[in-house]
Design brief:
elongated, binds zinc ion
Length: 419
């Protein structure tokens, strides 16, 4: 037998013997979820684990991030593997013995906290991969950087965090990774299956904040003021024509949604201002810039036409998650080998965002989706990620471990190929 094959078999055996630990870690994290930038307990558990494996460990990166480095001592590529650690302000409704009863303060409100996006799985999987690869250290060539990242769901208001902050704090330096791999557990895909997509896979996301300023007046005397409520209504409709009439949606889909509109206090007062919040999703950075420009024009010119003024502000920005095409083509055979060819498929584009995109702007990256829905479940019935009923079939965890481990081993075995 040739070397990589027997190494792979060794990896599979290790994954199998680690499976019960990974499940136990996942349940522990599930029971103790922490909001973005507050992953204190989680990162302590992670750091202790990596230290026990003998890895040098950096803590406090981008607040609570943890980075471990496995150095084989032999020359070879540097491969980064990333897991996100934060939970969501969601009150769990799943009936499992390790359900979360945790509460915390979010935006000034008392909320339930739940790993409703499955980041508990990601942390447990990457801890398992670290243990697996550390056990194979004498057979590796190169280095593996384990990145445990806070605040993927976005830092609390007024704070920075997530992948962008980790990068600014040097997570992609010393050593600089040649490639980065990451996975997400995904509801609606059956456990045992893996979905991926070359090129743009998840959307860019920008929050839009619009302030329309008119002039307050009596509701019975609208001509004595400038009504920002009617103008805002026109703006909402005008914004809907950007995607439906102005953008070439045959290239890529895009979404503009207004999710909040606030103005006024009673029936017979036309207020001074109205505020609106919304979101923009695109799969192409050029379209993204173009749509921003069109939003500005639409908002400002409609307001102007009625004698009001309006300001548009974009924030909470996340770039498109773009899988490097040569790297994806190169690594997909690995996924097919370990999961079974018929279990690996090209998934739909996802209009959700993922801050893994920031790493991919710096190094070629591959991000894929591991199914966690119990086989046989009606896809349309299963609760999506972020739902209080988000449920994980834990048989998927072992495939998560094996996939990241094998991607790492295979990349190490032939790093010279394009990627
Ligand atoms: Zn999420
Ligand atoms: Zn997520």
């Amino acid at each position: 037998m040739n070397e990589p094959l027997s190494l792979g078999a060794q990896a599979d055996a290790a994954a199998k013997s680690l499976e019960h630990k990974v499940v136990a870690w996942r349940r522990d994290f599930h029971q103790h979820p922490e909001l973005s930038n507050r992953e204190v307990r989680t990162s302590n558990v992670v750091a202790d684990h990596l230290r026990k494996l003998g890895l040098p460990v950096q803590t406090g990166v981008a607040h609570t991030g943890v980075v471990g480095l496995l150095d084989s001592g032999r020359p070879g590529p540097v491969i980064a593997l990333r897991a996100d650690m934060d939970a969501l302000p969601v009150a769990e409704e799943v009936d499992v013995p390790f359900a979360s009863k945790q509460r915390a303060t979010f935006n000034g409100q008392d909320v339930g906290v739940m790993h409703a996006c499955g980041h508990d799985c990601h942390v447990a999987i990457l801890m398992g991969v670290a243990e697996l690869l550390a056990g194979l250290k004498t057979r590796l060539a190169g280095k593996v950087k384990f990145i445990f990242q806070p605040a993927e769901e976005g830092p609390p208001a007024g704070e920075e965090g997530g992948a962008a902050l980790m990068i600014r704090q040097g997570v992609l330096e010393n050593p600089k990774p040649d490639v980065i791999f990451g996975l997400h557990v995904f509801a609606g895909v059956e456990a045992g299956m893996i979905a991926y997509r070359p090129g743009p896979a998840m959307a860019s996301s920008d929050r839009i904040k619009v302030t329309v300023t008119g002039r307050q007046t009596h509701g019975a005397l609208p001509w004595r003021g400038v009504d920002p409520i009617v103008i805002s209504s026109q703006i909402v409709l005008g914004l809907q024509t950007i995607i439906s009439r102005q953008v070439d949606v045959s290239l890529e889909p895009a979404v503009v949604s207004i999710g909040a509109i606030k103005g006024g206090i009673r029936d017979n007062i036309i207020p001074d201002t109205v505020e609106m919040l919304g979101t923009v999703r695109t799969f192409n950075e050029e379209m993204r810039r173009d749509i921003h420009e069109r939003i500005r024009n639409t908002v400002e010119l409609i307001a102007k036409s009625a004698g009001a003024s309006a300001q548009v502000h974009f924030d909470n920005a996340y770039p498109v998650t773009v899988n490097d095409v040569p790297l994806t083509e190169r690594m997909v055979p690995t996924l097919k080998r370990i999961a079974g060819t018929e279990k690996v498929f090209v998934g739909q584009k996802i209009t959700g965002y993922e801050d893994f995109s920031y790493y991919q702007q710096k190094v070629p990256g591959f991000f894929y989706f591991v199914g966690i829905t119990p086989p046989g479940t009606d896809r349309r019935q299963c609760a999506p990620n972020h739902s209080p009923r988000f449920y994980v079939d834990e048989s998927a965890l072992a495939l998560g471990v094996r996939s990241l481990a094998h991607l790492t081993l295979d990349y190490m075995a032939s790093p010279a190929a394009p990627g």
